Amino acid sequence: xxxxxxxxxxxxxxxxxxxxxxxxxxxxxxxxxxxxxxxxxxxxxxxxxxxxxxxxxxxxxxxxxxxxxxxxxxxxxxxxxxxxxxxxxxxxxxxxxxxxxxxxxxxxxxxxxxxxxxxxxxxxxxxxxxxxxxxxxxxxxxxxxxxxxxxxxxxxxxxxxxxxxxxxxxxxxxxxxxxxxxxxxxxxxxxxxxxxxxxxxxxxxxxxxxxxxxxxxxxxxxxxxxxxxxxxxxxxxxxxxxxxxxxxxxxxxxxxxxxxxxxxxxxxxxxxxxxxxxxxxxxxxxxxxxxxxxxx
Length: 296
Prior knowledge:
With 296 residues, the chain is α/β, with parallel strands linked by helices. The chain contains nine helices and 14 strands. The protein folds into two domains: 11-125, Rossmann fold (3-Layer(aba) Sandwich), CATH 3.40.50.720; 147-295, Succinyl-CoA synthetase domains (Rossmann fold, 3-Layer(aba) Sandwich), CATH 3.40.50. It is 35% helix and 23% strand. A seven-stranded mixed sheet has the order 3-4-2-1-5-6-7, sandwiched between helices. A seven-stranded mixed sheet has the order 9-8-11-10-12-13-14, with helices on both faces. It is globular and about 55 Å long. The mean pLDDT is 95.
């Protein structure tokens, strides 16, 4: 099993014909993702040739792409200024999952398209995220497909780079799905959404959760884990050495007072029974112990 993205997912790429879209569509196709179309109003009716003889048609709108291909996932490589309009177009077309890779989207725009999505049946992942991968099944975004294979660990992370490191360090166990939710102050899918989905996925047996300083998402996730998650969870919080009051690489990673510090988040998670590593490698080692115990 996997969450949100399976071998049956049919993926379109909004912005496929741009340089980033082309590069990552090539990689998604190479990893076995069923990419069925691209969207670019100016290039509608054309096809794009990819390696190994793969041809992908380009449609004028998301609605046309869905009507022709049955697509249920869109990956967006759209410049920040046009991201809100592109996400709203995907929502209006009824796409089930919109994966917003774009970095630098205005928080106001994200708030508007996220609120617009509520009750309309579209799950948003991102923005400013690497996407998600169900190894061996499908890969929607920019996560390298060759760093880990299929397995029974679920991963949810605010950080793209730490997603890759954790998948690589635990590659001998493998993953059901790895989800990079993004590090902006407002995001579509949260730690809690992923924890709930992994808890309900019969083939995910343990969960790695990677958070970072700023906001209270990790504290909320800790409370959710305490009340709702029966599977073992290990955690890591990026930013133990960050100076207070300074915005770090992710727009959401700013600490004021004791609220939002790595230490406060670590304590909240540990109080909920989550084992928290001091480094990514220590976190991987904690998960390794759990997986070895489960298979013993």
